[in-house]
């Protein structure tokens, strides 16, 4: 087993900015487009995604290292990962409900949405494919979550403005949102010069 | 029989999952700078949607309510893994290029959506058809996107040079942001056509001859 | 058939049976294709070696035959060194692995006998972003290295446009993927001294 020699902090910042999981890998688009209509919900979903992504990446890493690899279950990886994600979401829902009903009011409705958020499974698969160490995986998961959160909040804020803009009818809604995302993606690639930690 | 036709029309055009609801683009949009990879990926999605719809529909009277979602996920993962294994063994180059995106078909919202909305309450054969046509509608949009990205980005179609070498390649078309722009343009045109049709339809009874 | 679909026992039995059937089918399929997958893996390496050395082949079968007949493999200091004679010149190649922006990039680097030129480079695996760093696998990028001179023990992957010369030891980077491009430069710079010492060249 050889872990790539990459500073975990580089992974952390790169996954937030230069290679935002949403803007360069297109993961988590479905809920991104439908939820970003509303700033408050976007924020709630962003937090939930960040939380679940970090926890599931860590759990899946442990499973990968101690169960999947030794038992040569690589071909069942997808099923195992998705079950872990679904289970974490369920447990988290219960815990949050018991511990903090207030937080549940904010996050509760979003949690079920997360099981089918491709970004979560995507991060787990990338983590495995790139053979990250535990620390690298966790920071990559956290960074990707924060990146997703940042992108959805930014988009929600922009969409508030474009709502009243005179957009051609067929381009209204989804069309103009996609163009907005495209411009955001270009702007985020521009961060590439900023982070040169290597 | 007209049911089948109606479903085809709805899923392929009128309620095309991508154009109308922007569902399921996550797993494929990233590979749309290459037409061949997109084709194989969307064929995979179509097969998985059709077969999992069929299976879920066939099992629909046996699935306990409590584990409904997880069973659906299990069925979908089952077919996705099959696609993955087959790709890995017989088209290794494509499998390598698609990387983790094949696995991400599991979380493709279209598949879950069709299973939940259609297969759950319909018979197997028509469910298969519903999934298949939804997949075709999806394939149609993404293949068009990939066609333009590859053509303008590399000057090729399916890897064959079609534009003259003097054509300045648009690097942006290879890069991720262009996927959003091309998809947005496609949706713009598609909606324009749909709206025009709606208008002409509604104005027909009144005898108006407007465009 | 009368089942109580909502009973606990039924739920458990149902879940168990369904999972069991799926697992059996999948593991069967996995076993059936394992051999083929392993062969593909070897083929990737063989093709990368031939590509890096600039040896043509027509098909996968041809690649294997050409590799077996033309390329010699020896192990020196735990490195696998591939060598072949192309147009009267000896070419040496080595497997490399180093980190890119996201993960390990592995591939084959081929040089001429006095390690003054890169003969070619090809990648076996990488996990850079598609459309950005992933473009290192595109031909135009790899072909830039073909017969490029090694200057000061490296080939610079420049982020500003460089002239189309094979003597300056410079090639163009990929737009929007500076870190990946620089990683390739670093990997080459790491492996050139290794190749020199393996081949006994100063």
From TrEMBL, chain A:
<dbReference type="Pfam" id="PF02508">
    <property type="entry name" value="Rnf-Nqr"/>
</dbReference>
<dbReference type="InterPro" id="IPR050133">
    <property type="entry name" value="NqrDE/RnfAE_oxidrdctase"/>
</dbReference>
<feature type="transmembrane region" description="Helical">
    <location>
        <begin position="45"/>
        <end position="63"/>
    </location>
</feature>
<comment type="similarity">
    <text>Belongs to the NqrDE/RnfAE family.</text>
</comment>
<comment type="subunit">
    <text>The complex is composed of six subunits: RnfA, RnfB, RnfC, RnfD, RnfE and RnfG.</text>
</comment>
<feature type="transmembrane region" description="Helical">
    <location>
        <begin position="12"/>
        <end position="33"/>
    </location>
</feature>
<feature type="transmembrane region" description="Helical">
    <location>
        <begin position="75"/>
        <end position="96"/>
    </location>
</feature>
<feature type="transmembrane region" description="Helical">
    <location>
        <begin position="170"/>
        <end position="195"/>
    </location>
</feature>
<keyword id="KW-0472">Membrane</keyword>
<keyword id="KW-0812">Transmembrane</keyword>
<keyword id="KW-0813">Transport</keyword>
<dbReference type="GO" id="GO:0012505">
    <property type="term" value="C:endomembrane system"/>
</dbReference>
<comment type="function">
    <text>Part of a membrane-bound complex that couples electron transfer with translocation of ions across the membrane.</text>
</comment>
<feature type="transmembrane region" description="Helical">
    <location>
        <begin position="133"/>
        <end position="158"/>
    </location>
</feature>
<protein>
    <recommendedName>
        <fullName>Ion-translocating oxidoreductase complex subunit A</fullName>
        <ecNumber>7.-.-.-</ecNumber>
    </recommendedName>
</protein>
Automatic annotation (TrEMBL), chain B:
<feature type="transmembrane region" description="Helical">
    <location>
        <begin position="70"/>
        <end position="91"/>
    </location>
</feature>
<feature type="transmembrane region" description="Helical">
    <location>
        <begin position="12"/>
        <end position="32"/>
    </location>
</feature>
<feature type="transmembrane region" description="Helical">
    <location>
        <begin position="168"/>
        <end position="190"/>
    </location>
</feature>
<dbReference type="InterPro" id="IPR003667">
    <property type="entry name" value="NqrDE/RnfAE"/>
</dbReference>
<protein>
    <submittedName>
        <fullName>NADH:ubiquinone reductase (Na(+)-transporting) subunit D</fullName>
    </submittedName>
</protein>
<keyword id="KW-1278">Translocase</keyword>
<keyword id="KW-0472">Membrane</keyword>
<feature type="transmembrane region" description="Helical">
    <location>
        <begin position="38"/>
        <end position="58"/>
    </location>
</feature>
<keyword id="KW-0813">Transport</keyword>
<feature type="transmembrane region" description="Helical">
    <location>
        <begin position="127"/>
        <end position="148"/>
    </location>
</feature>
<feature type="transmembrane region" description="Helical">
    <location>
        <begin position="97"/>
        <end position="115"/>
    </location>
</feature>
<keyword id="KW-0812">Transmembrane</keyword>
<keyword id="KW-1133">Transmembrane helix</keyword>
<dbReference type="Pfam" id="PF02508">
    <property type="entry name" value="Rnf-Nqr"/>
</dbReference>
UniProtKB/TrEMBL annotation, chain C:
<dbReference type="Pfam" id="PF04205">
    <property type="entry name" value="FMN_bind"/>
</dbReference>
<keyword id="KW-0997">Cell inner membrane</keyword>
<keyword id="KW-1133">Transmembrane helix</keyword>
<keyword id="KW-0597">Phosphoprotein</keyword>
<protein>
    <submittedName>
        <fullName>FMN-binding protein</fullName>
    </submittedName>
</protein>
<keyword id="KW-1278">Translocase</keyword>
<keyword id="KW-0830">Ubiquinone</keyword>
<feature type="transmembrane region" description="Helical">
    <location>
        <begin position="12"/>
        <end position="32"/>
    </location>
</feature>
<feature type="domain" description="FMN-binding">
    <location>
        <begin position="100"/>
        <end position="192"/>
    </location>
</feature>
<keyword id="KW-0472">Membrane</keyword>
<keyword id="KW-0285">Flavoprotein</keyword>
<keyword id="KW-0812">Transmembrane</keyword>
<keyword id="KW-0406">Ion transport</keyword>
<keyword id="KW-0739">Sodium transport</keyword>
<keyword id="KW-0288">FMN</keyword>
